[in-house]
Fold:
Amino acid sequence: MTRRTLAFLACALGCPAGAAARDPFLPPPTPLGTIGAPLQRLEIAQLTLVALVCDLPVPRALLEDPDGIGYIAIPGTPVGRNGGRVVAIERRKLHIREPGADHEIALELQAERGGDR
Structure:
């Protein structure tokens, strides 16, 4: 279908005029000031490293926000408001690098709640 056909169909279906101009096969635009992934809305200091799974082909980490909501991260996952990305996951540590930074940020796995076993 061409854009012209899509615009015609949108008008025929009673969609608002602005809706006809948007390509329905592209994701909707994000409002100004918002960031895509949930982990990009938080500061890295707000996150707690809760669990790691390192013996998989792609290691995974479980990060928890202040509200107790968990997020799974793998290498390459965007984290933080400054454009950081997970660059490595190793035993007991998750490494994040922000653009322009000369060092990595390391989140360490905390001891289990209720005592270290």
